[in-house]
Amino acid sequence: MDAERDHAKSELEQFKVDIASAMKQMASLDKALGKKEKSLDNIRNQIEQIQSGIAMKNDEMGTELIDQLTSEERDLLSRLNPEITELKEKFLLCKNSRIEIETRKEELETNLSTNLMRRQKELEAIISSADSKTLPLEAESKEQELKSSKRSLDELTAMLKANVDAINNFTRKMEELKRHRDDLKALEANLEQTVQDGAKDLEQLMSSRSMHLAKQEECMKKIRDLGSLPADAFETYKRKNKKQLQKMLYDCNEQLQQFSHVNKKALDQYVNFTEQREQLQRRRAELDAGVARHFREVFSELVQGGHGHLVMMRKKDGDADDDDNDEDGPREPDPEGRIEKYIGVKVKVSFTGKGETQSMKQLSGGQKTVVALTLIFAIQRCDPAPFYLFDEIDAALDPQYRTAVGNMIRRLADMADTQFIATTFRPEIAKVADKIYGVTHKNRVSYINVVSKEQALDFIEHDQTHNAS
Fold it and tell me: Last residue of some domain: 200, 222, 239?
């Protein structure tokens, strides 16, 4: 029993020594963990700096610098992009590995603070109350736990070393990318300087071009001031030198002094005025024929079975005013050379299509209104306006003429894309209108409101009934 007790004591002492050494190792591990934590903090700072640097490089790489690079530099940049992507992936792996290591470290710290310390106290309590039989078994379990902790520590150390190596490799790659970026910036500065020099040269060339254009314009103005020139003028004087041309110019100026009182542009002005007069005469003839033709068409549409036409009234210088001088069509030239002038138009219409035509003096008020509207619609067909404003044009018309006028306004609005604005107290125009506005007067204030076609027709009917009564 004494020998066994002595052996147990010796084993107990040995366990105490092992526990003391384990505690020392744990203390050293704590110090190593503290150093590793500082190293991890430094690594985090470096990673943040590297990330900010990568963001800056990405911003720089997002500019249009690639448009100014040579083909070799573009090839090099295209080869570096996959490497950068690969480094980013490695960086993400290192970051995830670092997070796993930190998580593992926290677990170890938690295990150390909660389990191992508590286990140490339990062991101490067990040692104080242990007998000789249970000590060897507990010592063996402790040795196995210690070996497991050593293996875990070795694995963590190896992982940390691999992460440090990866970070170092990534740092070297970043340094290479920085050097390449500096080279690209230098190349960009050279290209910008080249562009600025080119812009200055271009500005000088544009200034010179403007000056020469101004001189050319001045010379062309002087050539135009010379008036009409012979067809071979440029070929004749192209072979002469400047001194000969100056001498000839001086002689010409001396000769022109004799004709200083003559209008040098009389011939050009005569030709221009003649062309303008011919154009105006053609345009007048076209308008006269067009309005007369449209007048006949419109009158036959408004007055069923009727017919009418316009007659241009003309007279010559020296003739007395004669209302019967209304022959239309071409005339023989005056042998005395008198100028023929237009003094107005004359209307001849027949509302029945039978008998002689009537002039405006022989028509009633309603018939005069029909003729006036016919002339307006004829002019509209020949030279349309964007809109027309009619104020009670149907007041003096019979129902059949009001219906014909309303249908024509509707047809012209649809075909010619022309807007007609008309005021009326009759239902014929209101029936063909797109939109109707009612004007009311109340308390010395006028009000304009949109009304429906039914409301407008009811109002017109009520107004006609009230006026009839």
Answer: 200
